[in-house]
């Protein structure tokens, strides 16, 4: 992977669609359940798999976000953000791919070291904040051609993968979390 890469997972930014009234009804039922999960996806996985849920850190670098990510977070074009990409898995089964974009001002403003999570799930940290807000959610159905070969090999991507991305705000500090639901998780 080139050092200037914006992502380990994606060759290009997905074509996200704003979650509007009625969108839920066009999603497969198994996708609806995960897309509209109000709590932490990690906690939902732990409720099913227990301590077998693990986070594999794939990418953790300061990089410029994709254009649409910058716009959503209102980050100027010359600013870099912390980009963190992980695979959530259990019993060596890939379940969820996640991409988080955290602006520098969010890391500084929350006085928590979000830049050094390692293999700790982001959800454990952000869902502990009493004033966590979801400001916007978008959905996507991705085709294999937007994924890097490394992601395809790692997660066994050979079909459409559904995802959601959410702007979370804590004490007026925003971050963007994109989660992609792999076939194994949709069977739960």
Concise description?
By secondary structure, this protein is α+β, with helices and mostly antiparallel strands. It has helices at residues 29-35, 41-49, 67-73, 104-110, 122-126, 149-155, 183-186; strands at 17-18, 53-63, 81-90, 93-103, 132-142, 161-170, 173-181.
List keywords for this structure.
188 residues; alpha+beta; Chorismate lyase; seven-stranded antiparallel β-sheet; 7 strands; 24% helix
Please characterize this protein's 3D structure:
This protein has 188 residues and is of the alpha+beta class. The protein has one domain (17-179): Chorismate lyase. The chain is 24% helix and 34% strand. The chain contains seven helices and seven strands. The chain has helices spanning 29-35, 41-49, 67-73, 104-110, 122-126, 149-155, 183-186, and strands spanning 17-18, 53-63, 81-90, 93-103, 132-142, 161-170, 173-181. A seven-stranded antiparallel sheet has the order 1-5-6-7-4-3-2, sandwiched between helices. The chain starts with 16 loop residues before the first strand and ends with a helix.
Topology:
Layout: E1 17-18, H1 29-35, H2 41-49, E2 53-63, H3 67-73, E3 81-90, E4 93-103, H4 104-110, H5 122-126, E5 132-142, H6 149-155, E6 161-170, E7 173-181, H7 183-186
Antiparallel strand pairs: 1-5, 2-3, 3-4, 4-7, 5-6, 6-7
């Amino acid at each position: 992977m080139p050092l200037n890469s914006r992502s380990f997972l994606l060759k290009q930014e997905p074509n996200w669609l704003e979650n509007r009234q009625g969108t839920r009804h066009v999603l497969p039922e198994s996708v609806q359940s995960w897309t509209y999960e109000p709590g932490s996806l990690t906690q939902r996985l732990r409720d099913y798999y227990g301590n077998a849920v693990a986070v594999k850190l794939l990418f953790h670098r300061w990089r410029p976000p994709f254009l649409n990510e910058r716009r959503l977070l209102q980050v100027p074009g010359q600013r870099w953000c912390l980009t963190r990409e992980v695979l959530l898995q259990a019993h060596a089964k890939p379940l969820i791919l996640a991409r988080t974009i955290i602006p520098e001002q969010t890391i500084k403003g929350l006085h928590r070291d979000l830049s050094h999570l390692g293999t700790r799930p982001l959800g454990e940290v952000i869902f502990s904040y009493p004033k966590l807000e979801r400001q916007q959610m978008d959905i996507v159905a991705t085709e294999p051609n937007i994924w890097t070969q490394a992601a395809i090999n790692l997660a066994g991507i050979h079909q459409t993968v559904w995802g959601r991305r959410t702007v979370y705000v804590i004490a007026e500090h925003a971050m963007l979390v994109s989660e992609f639901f792999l076939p194994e998780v949709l069977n739960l």
